[in-house]
Amino acid sequence: MDARGGADESRATILANGSPENLRSLPRAGSKLRVRNWLASSPPVIWGIRQLREILIGALKQGPVPQHVAFVMDGNRRFARDRHIETVEGHSLGFEALARILEVCYKVGVKVVTIYAFSIENFKRSKHEVDALMAMAKLKLEQLSEHGALLDRYGASIRILGQRELIREDVLVAVDKAVSLTAKNKKAILNVCFPYTSRAEITSAVKTTIDTYSKPLGTNPPPLKRPFSEKRITQHIRNQMLSAVPEEASEQPTSRSNSPSSLKESNGTSSSTSTAVNPSEKDEGQHPDPAFLDPETITEETLNDNMYTAGAPPLDLLVRTSGVERLSDFMLWQCHEKTSVVFLECLWPEFDLWQFLPVLIEWQWQQRKLQEQERGRGRLKTE
Amino acid sequence: MAPAEVPAVTAGVGPKETVAFRKGTIDGRKQLTAKEREALMDPYLPRKASPAPDGTSSRLKQHKRKEGLLRTFIYISVYRIVSFIFSVFFRFRRSWRLVTGKAVAVLKHHHRTPEFIQRDVKHLERLPKHLSVILDFDESDENLGHAGLEGLTSDVCEIAAWTASAGIPLLSVYEKSGKLKNYMPQLHKHISQTLEAYFGPRRKPTLSVRAPHLQSYSPPNTPPLNASPDAASVSPSRSATPKSENGHLNVLLLSSVDGRGTIIDLTKTLSEMVQKGAIEPSQVDSNLIDQQLVDAVSDEPDLLVLFSPTVQLKGYPPWQLRLTEIFHLPDNKGVNYQVFLRALYNFAKVEMRLGR
Question: Which UniProt keywords apply (chain B) (predicted)?
Fold first, then answer.
């Protein structure tokens, strides 16, 4: 609704600010627009808009507020293409939109904002664009790091989610500085997904979980759940079998390992060799099997805690601009349950309070309806 | 470059600040220092956070409190007004959408005839190979005749018939609780009957109903194709191509346990294997996980159709959602052909952009 108006306006202003030939050819429209522009950038109007924004934000605060909001900042490139400006320019206008929307979010009372800044897939783009994006990230982070005192007072703590090893060295320095500078801010969190894909995130959570569960617990093993020791049983059986079948050792691992057939083919060979070696090693070593955490204790929480977003409140709202109705490998684990996913037509650089306001109000409205429903259900149950 | 000078008219930020923000300079001077930037920022920062000097008189404090009260009063009243206006707007919009939806539904109806559906999708250049839908198990008896298992089954039957008519080989049906999985033979019978009603007994496509970790259901009275023995062992996407003149439809039933639960189970299995030394932790990568999840559950659907008024994924398997096109008709409630058709239209128009 507002998107189109905003677009027209910006297009008009481009005209107004365009080359002098343009203005001369359209003298009337040009002067009209110039007056409008002059009016729009006059201090009282700016002050008025500022106050209006403050009031709206303060008003939004009175209702339920999402605790965790995620944005897919899509449409910078199309914005640039539509307006015949450079792609990089589109990205920096996108950054401006981000600054505006972050201000809105934190003033409304959102605790965590997660933004999809850069996908691992984006490395496939032209080197020029990737370099420019990296340079922009570096510059903004460096500028940010210069404001230590202000950050302490107002700042959110910045966290970078994603594959750190893919970040360029010099950018990484800026990233680390900004992250460590803001680490102690408790008021709000800004998660920047920077080389990120959700599948990589889930994979890394799975791997971290596996790592914790495959570390031997050290000297004191946990109390056994049942009074029988697996090892003694296998030993017993082995002793019995040894007399009958001499090649028992090679058969043992296949019955023990958990369905290696479900593995990929490439892993099949290596797994069978490693299992074949393993039992003999155990037999030589006199000490008992290294004790592990029981994999059955792995729960949703375990994986949740190993996601990049560990500790953040559940994702309430995910907004994607530019009309593409796809998640594009973003927050899959976090958004597939109760999150409201909203797809907007407007492009990211156009995104502002005026586009975000209806989304927030609709969310609040749905939230209120949900509460009413739950109350109704509760009443039914008690009756 | 001129076009970059677009002032953010509605942002409430002055032109000086906007330029400073964009270029880091004012009046073409050198880069701003950190101090200058902070001075520029000052009027935009929240006031209350500034440390109040302690020596203020009580009168000033009182004045401040009054102002604060006034502000909260304004906020609350604006909140009430705005939410009232919007709730009226939302209601109007919903009724408008319902009316237009009904109009389209009358104009475009399938009349339980596959030819009509084929005509509707004929000119679409791109059809999904794997269509997925999210359905709700409706416990309440609000909408008569469409509640409970019966309503759910009839929804699945209709969607399956549309899918088969459109020539899409694989349909996966997600329902959170997984109740359908307990009635696979009955469901198979019902869908077959619906297909027969649509296509007639001779042109009826063959059908198999599957669910992860359960025996696939393709009774012997379906023509003896390689589908029935294979469906259980081969991955779902591959088993969907038996050579039959009438086509073949695979229906895959999913529930919330196939989402996070399956990933957790996979983690458990992998941890166990690493503990036993069967695999190295470094061998675990996203390809391995993907392979396992595709085999155990399904591959990525091309198109996910929601029949709910808003987009809420209700626990749909997350791994599979990566690039799936998600379609919903705002304010729509319940399964209908119009949503199905619009989803296919929408899908055909969208260009695939992998790198965003």
Answer: Endoplasmic reticulum, Magnesium, Membrane, Transferase, Transmembrane, Transmembrane helix
